Amino acid sequence: IESARKNGGTDTNFERRTASNGQSYFVLKAANTQIIGQSEMYAAKASMENGIASVMRNAPAAVLHDLSAE
């Protein structure tokens, strides 16, 4: 989770991909190039870019809610 916060604010950490069915998606990579997250599938590339923009905007300040103790 901390890695997603740290790496989610930088565009170069996102790899844009196309699935075999033609839909777009992205993966978020850490500095060591390990994949730390994958998006949903998007019908349009513009929607995927909006998803990346949302992660970049929200990930660095994301709050963790630990529900395991409840």
Provide a descriptive summary of the structure in words:
- With 70 residues, this protein is α+β, with helices and mostly antiparallel strands.
- The chain has helices at 2-7, 45-58, and strands spanning 14-18, 24-29, 35-38.
- A 3-stranded antiparallel beta sheet has the order 1-2-3.
- The model has no long low-confidence stretch (mean pLDDT 94).
Short characterization:
With 70 residues, the chain is α+β, with helices and mostly antiparallel strands. It has helices at residues 2-7, 45-58; strands at 14-18, 24-29, 35-38.
How much helical structure, as a percent, in the residues?
Answer: 25-40%
**What form results from the Cα inertia axes?**
globular
Count of helical regions: 2
Kindly report how far apart the N and C termini lie: 20 Å
Strand order of the largest sheet: 1-2-3
Summed over residues and divided by their number, the pLDDT gives a mean of: 94
Largest sheet: 3 strands, antiparallel
Low-confidence stretches: none
Radius of gyration equals 13 Å
Q: Please indicate the percent range of residues in DSSP E strands (runs of 2 or more).
A: 15-25%
User: What class do helices, strands and sheet pairing give?
Assistant: alpha+beta
Identify the notable features of this structure and list them briefly.
70 residues; 21% strand; alpha+beta; three-stranded antiparallel beta sheet
